[in-house]
User: Which sequence fits this backbone?
DNA sequence: CCTTTCAGTGAACATCCGTACACCGAAAAG
DNA sequence: CTTTTCGGTGTACGGATGTTCACTGAAAGG
């Protein structure tokens, strides 16, 4: 067990593992996980096909690793959003802005999630679903701290959080498919997303008074 | 040009064409359009691989035909919903009920749309997007006829319609993935969908007063 | 009745696929 | 220094894939 200046064996292994994940993310963004070819993947990485199995027992396992990786990136976005404006009234604007920014900078992660959420292998679909539910739970506890909403039941908060998460997921997917050469399309998507959030908030504020 | 009791040539062709669409719908529901194999498809139909090209120039064209077919089924659902309760206050309950019922009876169509909306070939994705936009437009004109909403701008109505359509699409996808042996899960999804629609309606009713 | 049309056939092609297997060479362990 | 571990290699396999091409036979057209 010697830690020299050069690369240790574990480090090398981890490096190729990450290279596989990188290449897989690119390929899956184009063709989907179900159509992923082991040979093309390993060719892109620069290793021989059989070497793949030194890192993953199956393509499904690769898919689960990609889910972990993608949602780790997403979680970072959420942390950023939460930290940003705790009480600022422009929370809607800034939240949508952060979302859009992350969709662009981490495009492949979002593409992967969008593609596989209902597209691919059942086990991957289920993993994504579980992660999104986790998000909803977190969002629900955040919402509970807001004024006007502190009297809501946990279930109603979850319902509202679900609505918000779905709207934001749809927004992200719309942005992904927006033509890059026409920025006004994206601006329209952003405006729609902001309006929808505002609509939900207004609905929430007047919920119990009906 | 003779119309005997037996089958005419056009009829036979149309029959195999429909058989191809049927088989494709089943296969795509399991593996996705990108992973669809021409040979397995034609084997399922009972024809030779090359015969496929007598009906479709490419797999993409098949995909577009499937989009048409699926949305034709969806449109029928919408018509049923619209006809049902024009002014009945339980319109939310009955709309969700009709949606759920159709998701079950036309499961493969919904599966196809859910899978390919963000999953597959770009041209198919685009076609689905266009059809959903059409839905939003129709829904927006329906909403315009409601009291309290007749003063809304066309754009705001579109925004609201978009939110509703996305919520209903998400609901449909949740139902598709719900375990059939646990009906209480589906009941929970239905309750959530109803609450979300109510939340949106309440938000809309109080929109301009803020 | 003869000709044309055309949905479906069947063989052949080059190519890609996943995986089994024995093997190598360097790092790690002793 | 010797042994073990283990990423990565290279070959080989049987099988599936999309598309080509010339064909058949019955229905449609004249």
Assistant:
């Amino acid at each position: 067990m010697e830690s020299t200046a050069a690369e240790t064996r574990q480090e090398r292994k981890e490096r190729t593992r990450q290279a596989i994940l990188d290449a897989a993310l690119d390929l899956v963004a184009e063709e989907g996980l179900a159509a992923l070819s082991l040979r093309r993947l390993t060719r892109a990485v620069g290793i021989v096909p059989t070497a793949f199995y030194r890192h993953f027992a199956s393509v499904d396992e690769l898919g689960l690793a990609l889910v972990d990786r993608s949602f780790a990136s997403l979680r970072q976005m959420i942390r950023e959003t939460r930290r940003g404006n705790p009480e600022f009234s422009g929370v809607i604007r800034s939240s949508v802005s952060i979302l859009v920014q992350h969709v662009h900078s981490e495009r492949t992660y979002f593409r992967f999630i969008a593609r596989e959420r209902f597209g691919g292998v059942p086990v991957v679909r289920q993993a994504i679903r579980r992660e999104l539910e986790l998000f909803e739970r977190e969002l629900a506890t955040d919402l509970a701290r807001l004024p006007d909403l502190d009297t809501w039941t946990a279930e109603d908060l979850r319902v509202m959080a679900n609505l918000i998460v779905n709207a934001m997921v749809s927004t992200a997917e719309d942005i992904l498919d927006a033509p890059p050469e026409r920025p006004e399309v994206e601006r329209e998507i952003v405006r729609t997303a902001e309006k929808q959030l505002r609509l939900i908030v207004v609905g929430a504020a007047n919920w119990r008074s009906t």
Summary: The interface with chain A takes residues 31-32, 34-35, 114-120, 125, 129, 156, 158-160, 162-163, 166-167, 170, 173, 176-177, 192, 195-196, 199-207, 210 of chain B (CB under 8 Å).
